[in-house]
Amino acid sequence: MKRLSVTLLAFLMVASTSVNATNAPTNNVQILNASQVSKLDVSGKWSGKRNQYSFDKKTFIESFQYEFDLKQEGDIVTGTSTIINANGEYADMKIEGVLIGNKLHFAEKEVKSAIRPDGKVWCFKSGELYFAKSGDNLKLVGATPSYMEVYNYPCSGGETDLVKVDNSNNTQVLANAGTVSATTEDKMTVNVFPNPFIQSASIYYNLTTDAKVNAEVYDISGKLVTNLFEGNQKAGSYNLNFDAKNTGSMSGIFIVKLQVNGEVFSSQLVQMR
Question: Which domain holds residue 256?
Answer without folding.
Answer: 191-270
